[in-house]
Design goal:
The complex is a heterodimer of chains A (about 425) and B (about 525).
Chain A lengths: L11 H10 L3 H9 L6 H4 L1 E7 L3 E6 L4 H11 L3 E8 L16 E3 L2 E6 L17 H22 L4 E5 L4 E6 L2 H4 L3 H11 L23 H4 L2 H15 L6 H9 L3 H11 L6 H15 L5 H18 L5 H5 L5 E2 L14 E2 L15 H11 L17 H29 L1
Antiparallel strand pairs in A: 1-2, 1-3, 3-4, 3-8, 5-7, 6-7, 6-9
Helix pairs in contact in A: 1-15, 2-4, 2-16, 5-9, 9-13, 10-11
Chain B lengths: L3 H9 L28 H23 L4 H15 L12 H19 L3 H21 L2 H12 L7 H4 L2 H7 L4 H5 L2 E2 L2 H16 L17 E5 L4 H5 L4 E3 L2 E5 L3 H23 L9 H14 L9 H5 L8 H8 L2 H13 L4 H14 L3 H11 L5 H7 L1 H7 L14 H6 L12 H4 L2 H12 L9 H9 L3 H12 L20 H24 L1
Antiparallel strand pairs in B: 1-2, 2-4, 3-4
Helix pairs in contact in B: 2-3, 2-4, 2-5, 2-13, 4-13, 5-12, 24-25
The chains are: A alpha+beta (about 425), B mainly alpha (about 525).
The structure holds zinc ion.
The site of zinc ion has 7 residues of chain A, from helix 5.
Chain lengths: ~425, ~525
Amino acid sequence: MTMNIDEEPLTPEVMLAFYRRLYPFKSIFSWLNQGHTPTKLFTQREFAFTLQGDVYLRYQSFNTADELKKQVCTMNPTRFEIGPQYTLRPRDKKLARPGTFQPVERELVFDIDMTDYDPIRTCCSDAAICSRCWAFIAVAVKVLDNSIRENFGYKHLLWVYSGRRGIHLWISDKEAMQLTDDQRRSLVGWMSVIQGSKDQHKKVNVRPASRPLPPTLSSMLGTLAEAFSQIILDDQDLFRSAEGWKELLHLLPKDFVDDLGDHWKGKDRSSEDKWKDVKKFVKTNGPQGSAKRRMYESALEDIILQYTYPRLDAEVSKHRNHLLKAPFCVHPKTGRVCVPVDPETIDDFDPGNVPTVGQLLRELHEAEDPEVGEHHSDWMKTSLKPYVDMLDKHATEIIVEVVRKKKEEGDKTW
Amino acid sequence: MQSARDRKIATKKFLSVIPRDAEYPFRLNFYDIPPLYHVTIEEFETCALERLRVLAEIESSFARNRPWEDMKKFVTEQCKKHYPLDSSTAKFVDIRTQRKRDHIGHYVLRLAFCRSEDLRRRFVKAETTLFKIRFDMDDSSERQDFLDSLHGPTNKANDKQSGNEMDDGNKRGQNKIEETGWEEITKDEFDEFEEELRAAYESTLSPRDPPLREPWRMKHYKVKWMRVPDLVEKRRVFLHKGKAYVPETELSSIIFQQFQDNLEKSLLLTLKHLPRLDEDTRIIPLLNNLSQGFLAGVPSEWCSATSSANGDEITADMIDGMAKQHFPMCMRHLHESLRKDKHLKHFGRLQYGLFLKVLGLSIEEALAFWRRSFSLIQDDKFNKEYKYNIRHTFGLEGKRANYPAKSCQQILTADQPGPQDSHGCPYRHFSIDNLQTGLLSMYSNQGLSSAHLPEIVSIVKAGHYHVACTRVFEITHAAQGVKKNDGVGEGESVTHPNQYAARSLELEKMMKKEEEDVSMG
Ligand SMILES: [Zn+2]
């Protein structure tokens, strides 16, 4: 089953109605601004618009949520993106002395895209996505969410469905906002486990041979092994095909190759059976406690990592001035709204159930009270409500912490 | 004379390395206090020039991809000859003068190199490397003394943890330990994370090292993860809630990072104060000369005017033929991926596009080449998504910079290829199997056979990727008279893909000319 493309075309009229009546500008403002009265985090923040006909308009900036809304409704972009807070208002960029227009703060962002999983999924390819391949994203979210919280101690994480085949993460903790590009690069290095070009079979090199996994990876191994068994062995059945099991053999130590290769050639054995063969080989050929056994076991762990660990688009995270699509934009191909996603219930998330702009406008129409005119919080009458509530709750948590910190600092200087 | 006890107290404070009486207690110097004494203009100049020679050597070692051990040896020899700095136990040398010259040289070069972003970056890199080399070569007991002087006994650094903010506030600004945020972890913390600390440490050991038997013997320091970015990037420490738990064996990494951070900050401060020097007319020309010397002492970006030099223009439809004859493997691979997939991802386009530009492809021909190559893409999409970028690489859009093609060093180290990418250096980024298959399929018609593979593979395994590439050049140009160790002319190794291609074209031209001469004669 592939996802249905929304039946209604995304005309400029549809988009305009969406922006005027449904898009939660106030919530987006509070989240980016980290406070109720406008600060530089909002007023010096770059917005970039993609207009109908793919005209790209950079360095827009606004003083208030209303200003942003007004401009969005005037320009009626197909989508818009969010960049960093600069040293000056981006709209005044031309007036800046050379070298003085620099990014200052920006959420730490991550982008996970299904296309990076093409070599290891059998159900779909390229732009297509189904609930089966969403399982890959779900694992990635769990691992990344856990690592960011446990290793780096960040708390304000917002996961947002990208509208088609991926997911974005925005981290708003003060420290994360202030990371330099170099620091972002180091953090991404920590998170990057799958590396090497497509001409390189083994893409996991996280330790010298046979050494234990770094603790951050070994602590996730249970989750990953479960995902490996469910997704790779059972659901995708990746090693059933000759292409799939040959790739698997490339990742195993040489001793396995002759034995298992002969055993699998020309037979239709399920991935689960093949993995059992691998494990049996380990047991019979690597005596408990021997160096060989350790080597085999590390190879198996590395394979589990290679097939399940999050595949990140690293470039997105490394630079403060990288632009990322704003939450609640509409994906132009699917018509689906880029809604926040709760990592706690990520397994139940089905991209096919995300509201489309057409559906939302219909809901609005049905709930319409002819007596009352247009209203700002029209989204409350639609299935967009739980998602906007999620963003509001998230923004409130950020603001509460900002206020608390300010108070603490005030106490100190007092 | 200071008593030993006095000295210990004096060095307890973080970074206050230089006690007034014994100006230079250590061979290593963090350079956080400028020379506060009279310096003659001669000393000013000679100390700077001596140091500059060493720094330029470090830069060119990087450019030549010299392995760390080789570079260390080489630079140490250079230092011995021109800029000695001996340990405190050395006999019959004037240690104080050596250390003074080291101190002055460093500060003069700060003045010369604070003035542009590029100079600052290169200066910081070379200075940090020099510091690392000296740190590595330092007598181990002297190094320990120096380290102790930096972080001191770290037991009292835990005030922050106690949550006693009044106390904490009072100390702000006085206690340097707090600024750098070092804390030795407590016994409780150690017990809590023992498993993780052991695994983190063991996962960094080489297979031959014995496993750690008594990890509790080793001190661990807790520090904000941003202070040890390289350890974090390589996953060499345990991280918990934003703090890196650094074993004492990795301490040097912290020291180096701190040296670098301090220097970066100081250079910006120096820049601010520089205008005051304008009045001294002797100094400014001297500083200008110094920064020029740094630039000249280093191999510059490889750029050639191939097309203008030999007069024949390169056109889009010549690329297929040229790739087979003259391109190094990275570019052959990009070319073949482009033909196969009818597309290249961003860094592939960048690496290949800049290479072709420097090879001599004009903007018109480049646009024609890419347009035809992306044959699955509609004109509309091509014009929107790719044309701008191609024009950009030619400096016709955006910053209008004339971007140089990527050198081997950049290809080897920057922008590591991801699972879907075709860019990078095949010698480094391919698996050995794929490398061998690739070499045979690309170069067997130029004389490379499977008999050559073991040699190439062993060079690759030793990590000398550019040497492997040079060897392939020699093998595939044997017909033009190139012998082993000739390299790309006068024994030089390949350091730039365009250098490879240009030399190959040059050899072909010489052959043609000889043939003509023969047939005419
Ligand atoms: Zn699917």
